[in-house]
Design brief:
Blueprint lengths: L6 H6 L4 H11 L16 H16 L3 E4 L5 E5 L8 E7 L12 H16 L7 E7 L12 H6 L18 H7 L17 E9 L4 H5 L3 E7 L1 E10 L3 E2 L11 H16 L6 E3 L3 E4 L5 E2 L2 E10 L2 H22 L2 E10 L2 E2 L2 H13 L5 E5 L4 H5 L5 E6 L15 H21 L2
Parallel strand pairs: 3-4, 3-5, 5-16, 6-15
Antiparallel strand pairs: 1-2, 2-4, 6-14, 6-16, 7-12, 7-13, 8-11, 9-12, 10-12
The protein binds glyoxylic acid and manganese (II) ion (2 copies).
Length: 422
């Protein structure tokens, strides 16, 4: 027997786990690349996954809307139609060679929670909106957390001109995918229409597992800064140019990357990563003439992050000067660290307790749609234990029992928010 709220409902167990894991496996089949999961924003795989999620939302009794930037929203009305919504969800784009749970877990758990409410005939004071955002990762366009940013009205028309590595703009990609780029302003939602945002997500780190806990209430999300660096030297013959007369862009970039590592390691909580590098012309017998690489730097403190980033920029310029090369640093995105809302954090912690689990309270090192939504409405996150803390890797893994608990906690948190937000 289920009780309406709390422990007895939790003890019935496995309401969500098997179905949720089966759908996560099914969604993982939507990929650009055979043999791995790669689903970048507006790829054919992303569009197909979107339509699959749309179908599952409709099946769960939601009315479904796809916005001009291809976020999917399924709405389950509350007791009175048109009420402000509690939005639950995450993203369905992935990194290259991804795991199957990052983002997708939060979207499919949201669909499962609404399906459960509908099956029980349970309507809340608030509507529930399940959300599937896109380009959270920034793995196609240099525009991390794009579609949730559009929802909160934090993007301008320049977003349409942002280009991927093949030179395709967001405008062109949207038009090809059947979207409506010129209507991008319609993505913005007025304040108050979304009463709160809640995202279930794998932890992507090792803390829950180390502490033997399944779930955590997330307290804050680290800020980040992202730059593209282009180092220009001079290409030449690998056999004829003496070592002392070279302007090798790759050896200079190597020194710069080590500087990023050194500066990133200098403060607790600070991290710096060079995740992508391209070397031109890229031939065995040619001295590299140009190298482009990315920098991703994060910290719980915006001041620490900005100071470290400035120190890195100086180190890069010094290396370029000393080696006689040019360096161009394009810092295209800065996201402030965000504290999540105390009311939502408490609702999540109480929901985890109601599921028979002891809630940890943890900050997030990774970026999430919730950090953008937090500027728009009370927002929070539930973290779910993942194996060895591995993420952004095909070895990402969760258990069915934890998936079940995560969805239960999401449902319980929604019920608590529905009462406490009045
Ligand atoms: C998103 O996964 C990010 O934190 O980069
Ligand atoms: Mn994610
Ligand atoms: Mn991710």
């Amino acid at each position: 027997m289920h009780t309406q709220h709390g422990v007895a409902a939790a003890s019935t167990g496995r309401r969500f786990g098997p179905g949720l894991m089966a759908r996560l496996d099914a969604l993982a089949a939507f990929t650009e690349a055979e043999g791995q999961l790669t689903r970048r924003y507006l790829s054919a795989a992303h569009i197909a996954a979107m339509h699959q999620v749309q179908a599952w939302m409709a099946e769960a009794g939601m009315s479904v809307r796809i916005d001009p930037l291809m976020s999917v929203f399924g709405r389950y009305e509350g007791k009175a139609p048109g009420a402000p919504a509690i939005m639950i969800g995450s993203h369905i784009d992935t990194v290259v060679d991804a795991g199957r749970y990052d983002g997708n877990l939060g979207v499919l758990a949201a669909v499962a929670v609404v399906a459960e409410l509908r099956e029980r005939g349970e309507r809340l004071e608030h509507a529930i909106e399940a959300a599937a955002f896109g380009e959270e990762e920034g793995s196609r366009f240099p525009a991390h957390i794009l579609t949730s940013s559009a929802l909160v009205g934090a993007v301008g028309p320049e977003l349409l001109e942002v280009r991927d590595a093949d030179g395709v703009s967001v405008r062109e990609a949207l038009a090809r995918a059947g979207g409506n780029p010129e209507a991008w302003r319609d993505c913005a939602r007025p304040r108050g229409e979304v009463a709160a945002f809640l995202e279930l997500h794998i932890e992507q780190g090792p803390v829950l597992e180390a502490q033997g806990k399944a779930l955590a209430a997330v307290t804050a999300i680290n800020g980040s800064v992202r730059s593209r660096v282009t180092v220009t030297g001079f290409a030449g013959h690998a056999g004829t140019v003496p070592m002392g007369q070279r302007r090798d862009a790759l050896t200079a970039a190597s020194e710069m990357i080590l500087a990023a590592e050194r500066i990133g390691a200098a403060e607790s909580g600070l991290v710096a990563t060079v995740g992508r590098i391209a070397c031109l012309p890229g031939a065995q017998n040619v001295i590299p003439g140009q190298v482009a690489f990315t920098i991703d730097m994060r910290s719980p403190s915006d001041a620490v992050r900005d100071r470290a980033h400035a120190a890195l920029v100086s180190a890069l310029q010094e290396t370029a000067r000393r080696r006689g090369l040019e360096v161009e640093i394009d810092t295209y995105q800065r996201n402030a660290a965000k504290r999540l809302d105390p009311l939502v954090i408490d609702a999540v912690a109480d929901a985890i307790t109601a599921c028979g689990q002891e809630p940890l309270r943890l900050p997030s090192g990774a970026g999430h749609d919730a950090m953008i939504m937090a500027g728009h409405c009370p927002s929070g996150m539930i973290f779910l234990r993942c194996k060895d803390g591995i993420s952004h890797n095909p070895a990402e893994s969760i258990t069915m029992e934890d998936a079940d608990l995560g969805a239960q906690a999401l449902l319980e948190a929604v019920r608590r928010l529905d009462r406490r937000l009045r």
